[in-house]
Amino acid sequence: MKAVSRNPDYRYRVEVCLVPSQFPLYAEDMGIVVVIDVLRATSAMVAAFDRGVERIIPVATVDEARAYIGRPGYIAAAERNGEVVEGFDFGNSPLAFMQEDLSGKTIVMSTTNGTKAIDLARNARKLVIGSFLNLSALCDWLSEQDDNILLLCSGWRDKFNLEDSIFAGAVMDRLLELDKFGVEEDSSIAAQYLFWSARDNFMSLLKAAPRRKRLEQLKLQDDVKFCLTPDQSRVIPELRDGVLMPMEAPSLVK
Amino acid sequence: MKAVSRNPDYRYRVEVCLVPSQFPLYAEDMGIVVVIDVLRATSAMVAAFDRGVERIIPVATVDEARAYIGRPGYIAAAERNGEVVEGFDFGNSPLAFMQEDLSGKTIVMSTTNGTKAIDLARNARKLVIGSFLNLSALCDWLSEQDDNILLLCSGWRDKFNLEDSIFAGAVMDRLLELDKFGVEEDSSIAAQYLFWSARDNFMSLLKAAPRRKRLEQLKLQDDVKFCLTPDQSRVIPELRDGVLMPMEAPSLVK
Fold first, then answer.
1. A249 falls within a domain
2. Highest mean pLDDT among A161-165, A246-250, B221-225
3. What's residue A207's pLDDT?
């Protein structure tokens, strides 16, 4: 068993919270929270900003999103159980957001897991959005920060899921190369081991996952493949006063 | 990434609940619950029965255990934060239970994590106790059952821990060799991957774990080594009317 780098003289912690309901147990002293919902909310957010969307307003309920249907300049998006909610044109599919010209628009989005996790962590000093799409940009930016970092997996209906945990492990793996970051929690070590098990083929993790069947039934294979392809964007969405905006940072020049 | 055996035609599920607070999300339709607290409550229980203890009464609070101090035929045991609670002669150390002749005695035990998990799952049709000490005996018995099985990790103050999850993965690994068992949850797959990462050296997992520092400070290395040594006993404790007793089953003859 390869040992996780401990960096005994670290100054800041990088930890993983495997499910949203455990967030209060891990949140203390964590200045930066990275919200992760690989399939598909946070992937869709990164893709949408990459295509010129100006703002995303994450909302917890479908009704809040519904109020924006048909409003000029706004795109209302709602997903529950992997499907677009009736009455909406968009759910949480990143590919759907890329098929239209959304330049300058505001998306109001409610999803089963991702937007709930954002709501939970909204009081963090800094809340940013992570997905395989912006993996390297995110890690580059995190590497420059002098603060504790919590990687918050959105899970599936508050259950553990593989793709969010493996993504968290990928981020851990990069950050622990730096002496300034260290780890204290078993959950963080587990995420790294899961990433090592999956690193050679992100798609294979879903072959192992029973949830694949559900995704196949919903004909989402293209979306899934897209969401598991790293480094398609340099955008890091960050939450400011309840609204997600692309971060402006020197390291994020395309 | 080696794929987890799916056994598409399975009749019963084997699943892993990684932390006690998630138990309600996984408990439905689970006839058999295996409570796991490798360091150290469930290891101590198996060791105590192996040395002739007649009954163990798990209690949730220290005060409930305290009422039995000095009572003839009873051993009161209480552990909090890895240490024996003041006023008690025993905590959750399996080696301590083995240093005395406890034949025919009743232990009343309260621990930080393990006895709370037992309390949580007490209404299961069948509740049994698992640890590396009785790994093969447990798997032999589980293999013969025709029911869904939930492996409930006690964790550490409701946080995920490596040793319970890896033990759960070890059980998954054995049971999924049988066509009759299958898996639906990502948590169960993760446990199996963690077991594969650790299987060559159970001790190494704790070398990776920051909690090792705490265990070293408490001078518990001997206990830890003992708790991670598989197949020292054929005893399977089971809960009957709130009391743990050694199960009597044909496969458990020593």
1. no
2. A161-165
3. 66
Range with lowest mean pLDDT among A97-101, B122-126, B153-157, B229-233:
A97-101
A252 assigned to some structural domain = no
The parent domain of residue B87 ranges over 12-243
d(CA A138, CA B186): 25
Q: In what order do the strands lie in the sheet with A237-240?
A: A83-84, A74-80, A106-110, A55-58, A243-246, A237-240, A126-130, A32-36, A149-153, A12-17, A181-182
The three-class DSSP label of residue B185 is coil
Q: Helix, strand or coil for residue A112?
A: coil
pTM: 0.94
CB atoms B1 and A161 under 8 Å: no
Interface test with B, best of A15, A160, A181, A199 (most B CBs within 10 A): A160
> Would residue B252 count as lying in a domain?
no
How high does pLDDT run on average in chain B?
A: 91
Q: What is the count of structural domains for chain B?
A: 1
The answer to whether A144 touches A251, Cβ cutoff 8 Å, is yes
Tell me whether B185 touches chain A (CB under 8 Å): yes
Q: What share of chain A is helix, strand, coil (3-state, %, to 5)?
A: 40, 20, 40
Is there a domain that residue A33 lies in? yes
pLDDT at B201: 73
Nearest CA in chain A to B26: A159
Measured between CA atoms, how close is B209 to chain A, in angstroms? 6
A-interface mutation test, from B160, B165, B184, B188, most A Cβ less than 10 A away: B160
CATH of the domain at A51: 3.90.1560.10
For position A219, what pLDDT does the model report? Answer: 74
**What's the rounded mean pLDDT across residues A37-46?**
96
Per-residue tokens: A94 = 């990143």
Q: Residue A121 CA to chain centroid, in angstroms?
A: 13
Contact status of B18 with chain A (Cβ, < 8 Å): yes
pLDDT of res. A42: 97
Asked if pLDDT for residue A170 goes beyond 90, the answer is yes
